[in-house]
């Protein structure tokens, strides 16, 4: 089964910020794994093929955090 690898640069200032991003990713169907790093201000997500970039971006933005940049399978995407 194919999968997607998404990476986002997200402005997170505290553990609560990164925790909020982790919580929405845990609830999103089709997410295989993720790593949210407060130190590097990144969220790396591996999903099933059925989960598109826009869906993941929307979920992260709903936390109220600013998404500065994003990639889908190594290719820069609009935020």
From TrEMBL:
It comes from the Eukaryota. Gene3D superfamilies: 3.30.70.100. GO terms for cellular component: cytosol. Keywords: Chaperone, Copper, Copper transport, Ion transport, Metal-binding, Transport. Pfam families: HMA (PF00403). The keyword Chaperone applies. GO terms for biological process: copper ion transport. One of its GO terms (molecular function) is copper chaperone activity. Residues 3-68 form the HMA domain. PROSITE patterns: HMA_1, HMA_2. PANTHER family: COPPER TRANSPORT PROTEIN ATOX1. Belongs to the ATX1 family. This is Cytosolic copper metallochaperone.
């Amino acid at each position: 089964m194919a999968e997607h690898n998404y990476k986002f640069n997200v402005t997170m200032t505290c553990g609560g910020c990164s925790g909020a991003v982790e919580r929405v990713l845990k609830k999103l169907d089709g997410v295989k794994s993720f790593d949210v790093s407060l130190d590097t201000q990144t969220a790396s997500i591996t999903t099933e093929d059925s989960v598109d970039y826009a869906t993941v971006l929307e979920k992260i933005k709903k936390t109220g955090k600013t998404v500065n940049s994003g990639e889908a399978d190594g290719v820069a995407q609009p935020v």
